[in-house]
Amino acid sequence: MRDWVSNSAARFVRRRLTAIWLICMISMGPQSPLSSPSSCLELKCLIVYRGPNWIHGVSGNPIMSIAQATKSVALDPEGKMIMLSPEGHLIDEEIASKIREFVSESVAEAFQYSNQQKENISAKTSVLSFFQEKLDDTDFSDAEEQLCLELLQFEGAGIGESIERQSLKFFSLEEHPDQDDYFVASTYQRILEHIAEAAKSHADIRFKEAVVSVHAAERGGNQDHTHQVTVKTSTGTSYTFDELVITCPLGWLKQNPGVFHPPLPGPLLQSIHNVSYGRLEKIYVKFPQAFWHINPNNPDASSVIQEQPVFAQFLSPTYAEHPVDIVWSQECLSLASLPAPHAQPTLLFYTWGPCGTEIVNRIADLMPHSRAYNEVLLSFLRPFFSRLPGYNPGSPECTPSSILATKWQLDPYAGNGSYCNFQVGIEEADRDIKMLRSGDGIGQKRGIWFAGEHTAPFVGLGTTTGAYWSGERAGREICEWLGLSQVDSNELRDDSLPSARQ
Ligand SMILES: *[C@@H]1O[C@H](CO)[C@@H](O)[C@H](O)[C@H]1NC(C)=O
Ligand SMILES: *[C@@H]1O[C@H](CO)[C@@H](O)[C@H](O)[C@H]1NC(C)=O
Ligand SMILES: *[C@@H]1O[C@H](CO)[C@@H](O)[C@H](O)[C@H]1NC(C)=O
């Protein structure tokens, strides 16, 4: 995501400046999508995306506009949602939709409550307790209540952490601009290319050079035209800039405060510490055929599509071996339900929190696609995909042809994780986010400006859209500081939240 941010900042500044050297665009890691399509990894002849898959919120979303302009295909995947009980049985559709409705209404209420009652909610309260109270007011049977609590766990896939750890006080910071989530069927590739265009043609981009130090002394004053920021990289090269936009992931900032000389301001360091970093991972598993489709040879018939499972949730499985202290609920999206030519007989599993960490650690030292790697991932996934309709253990169609898992938690350039979140204990998350954005004035004072998903407007935190907005914001701030243009602040996305309008 960091590449996006610097690119959107650069694009923005480009429009108003002729001097492109204003923005430093040193890529933080070897996995930059610009250097090679390596963030699209090849999964035996099909391209998958290790990075973002979704566009969160559609209205007024700049990423959605870019998706349209680049003819990318983004949609709400069609098909049936299925839910499997802890015993591995298909849950009756009527019950499933009843509890789904309850959970989704309660999430909306929790957003609203979090927004309106923030002052009065203890920082120690988790979203889970809000749900437990809501459940007490229903006439659900014990079994239904239990299912609701199980289903709530899947909110973790959005947050990148267990729901028990999600702060109620700051739950509204997890809101998106609206309720529509679109899957980018054609992958983010063309969107990213579009955003990167200006930077790729005008900027000097250096890959495979990790930043090892940033020297930014205080400016001598507003009129200090000699002030510069110096960045040293792992190749021993030094670069100097007038202004520096830093888009490193929050997780990287947490681990590398020592890079900055003099040190970052105390309140900024505290906010970097206060906001937590998520653990979302994904696993793609490809089959010779989408065996879970009723008629895999005729995936285009729209009446059939409605009947195909597109999304499966496996609630707290008692049938899958796992560490007793780790919630093992899983969910997967069927990429076979995407429109042609993007449909593929692949399931995309999302893991989060302690389970995500457990899986990543199991494959940490294994070569992707090696026998040992495949075996570890297969033994994790088989209990789940083998419970989808149409599974037949003897059939070659039901034997995966390729598996690929992300390992963001083992990637120090990704900050060993996914994106920011707000866990129980955090006292003033909204102030912390504002602090991460402003850097406690370090931009004006020392020429360092921050961007990235963790510095986004509240509705954009943790998303590509937010990362994009944050780049525009940083670009504007620099322009404003340099007196380069009249900035119309109406154009900037503000911090208003949808739940405040209800
Ligand atoms: C917080 O609680 C107090 C006392 O019960 C109440 O007066 C106040 O309105 C509450 N604040 C909000 C934002 O509801
Ligand atoms: C990040 O990942 C690297 C590489 O796997 C590992 O050596 C390091 O300990 C991790 N750091 C944290 C804070 O998890
Ligand atoms: C970070 O958290 C600490 C205590 O939890 C708090 O005192 C501090 O004000 C927070 N930082 C900001 C900028 O809000």
Automatic annotation (TrEMBL):
<dbReference type="Pfam" id="PF01593">
    <property type="entry name" value="Amino_oxidase"/>
</dbReference>
<feature type="domain" description="Amine oxidase">
    <location>
        <begin position="100"/>
        <end position="478"/>
    </location>
</feature>
<dbReference type="InterPro" id="IPR002937">
    <property type="entry name" value="Amino_oxidase"/>
</dbReference>
<dbReference type="GO" id="GO:0006338">
    <property type="term" value="P:chromatin remodeling"/>
</dbReference>
<dbReference type="GO" id="GO:0003682">
    <property type="term" value="F:chromatin binding"/>
</dbReference>
<keyword id="KW-0732">Signal</keyword>
<protein>
    <recommendedName>
        <fullName>Amine oxidase domain-containing protein</fullName>
    </recommendedName>
</protein>
<feature type="signal peptide">
    <location>
        <begin position="1"/>
        <end position="31"/>
    </location>
</feature>
<dbReference type="GO" id="GO:0016491">
    <property type="term" value="F:oxidoreductase activity"/>
</dbReference>
<dbReference type="InterPro" id="IPR036188">
    <property type="entry name" value="FAD/NAD-bd_sf"/>
</dbReference>
<dbReference type="GO" id="GO:0050660">
    <property type="term" value="F:flavin adenine dinucleotide binding"/>
</dbReference>
<dbReference type="InterPro" id="IPR050281">
    <property type="entry name" value="Flavin_monoamine_oxidase"/>
</dbReference>
